[in-house]
Write a structure and sequence with these properties.
alpha/beta; eight-stranded parallel β-barrel
Length: about 325
């Protein structure tokens, strides 16, 4: 495989932003907005990117569109940051094809989640074993644990077993909720269970980011529409300025919480990116959420409050807060 950037490994850390998928008002992929979006993420200082994630509307893209989107985004990134590609698919053959295409195009690794129907530890272990064997040892894997969406629960025991048995697992994406104790157990496993240490990034929109960083997460992988906040938070924690980081986080918390609404959250995220001049349209591909006038006014109210708080605390003000 020819590559333009380094492979994902166990030392990965920081903010891996989950890219939105820009559409025009008619539902077609908007590559001009995608270019602006990639540039925006890089300018915000993110440490990596994730394409075709759950909030990236990957299931609404055809196989051809997924490939086109992935190649275009990777060309725009051009090796400046590591890129992880979400490849989850009910068919393992399809998953492997997209994974190999992603790696050949310059991805740093792939992310795989469970599929509905995995009810027991043994079923979960068997499924991921099949996937990783099919991918081969040369493709780095981020193991995604997202029970609220996949309905698949991965126990600490199964996760540790997979990490032990498959060296190609380099990262674990922790999105169980509530899951702080689970995170602590996984982070302590190298000492308590002699399990190989891997990178752990949290998710859930950054809703619990301060607590997860304190419990040992190496960063966050999410798509919050003000990425600079996530980057600042991470950098402040790494500089032993945790209290200052939490003070800044508290200012943005109403918007973080608001964006985490099931169903509507994607539309809020895209509208926020549109107001920052990044996306030409806030369109989500049908069937997808859209905002009505009440939703828009509610979002503007939250923007106004954020703007006031940022001014009074002398923090940087993102684009788009003035309407």
């Amino acid at each position: 495989m020819t590559r333009s950037n380094s492979l994902l490994d166990e030392t990965a850390c920081g903010v891996y932003i989950i890219s939105a998928t820009p559409f025009s008002d008619d539902g077609a992929l908007d590559y001009t907005s995608l270019d602006r979006l990639i540039d925006f993420y890089l300018d915000q200082g993110v440490h990596g990117l994730t394409l075709l994630g759950v909030m990236g509307e990957a299931p609404k893209l055809s196989s051809e569109e997924q490939g086109q989107f992935m190649h275009h985004a990777l060309r725009r990134v051009n090796g400046r940051r590591p890129v992880i590609v979400g490849v989850s698919n009910p068919g393992i053959d399809n998953l492997v094809v997209l994974s190999r295409e992603a790696m050949d195009a310059g991805a740093a690794g792939v992310m795989v989640s469970g599929i509905p129907g995995l009810k027991t530890d043994e079923q979960a272990y068997r499924y991921f074993s099949q996937v990783i064997h099919a991918l081969g040892p040369e493709i780095p894997v981020c193991l995604q644990d997202y029970p609220p969406t996949t309905t698949v629960y991965l126990s600490v025991g199964v996760i540790n077993r997979l990490i032990t048995d498959f060296p190609s697992i380099k990262m674990f994406k922790h999105e169980d909720c509530p899951g702080h104790r689970k995170l602590s157990s996984l982070r302590r496993a190298p000492e308590t269970e002699e399990v190989r240490r891997v990178s752990i990034l949290s998710g859930n929109g950054g809703l619990y980011m301060p607590q997860e960083l304190r419990r040992g997460a190496d960063g966050v992988m999410t798509g919050f529409a003000f990425p600079r906040l996530l980057v600042s938070m991470y950098e402040m924690f790494m500089a032993d300025q945790a209290e200052d980081a939490e003070d800044l986080y508290d200012i943005y918390l109403p918007l973080i919480r608001h964006e985490q609404q099931f169903g509507l959250g994607l539309a809020l995220r895209k509208e926020t990116l549109r107001r920052q001049g990044v996306l030409a349209s806030a369109k989500s591909r049908d069937p997808g959420p859209s905002l009505d006038q009440d939703d828009l006014e509610e979002l503007q109210c939250l923007f106004d409050r954020l703007l006031l708080k940022l001014k009074t605390t002398d923090h940087p003000i993102p684009e788009g807060l003035n309407g």
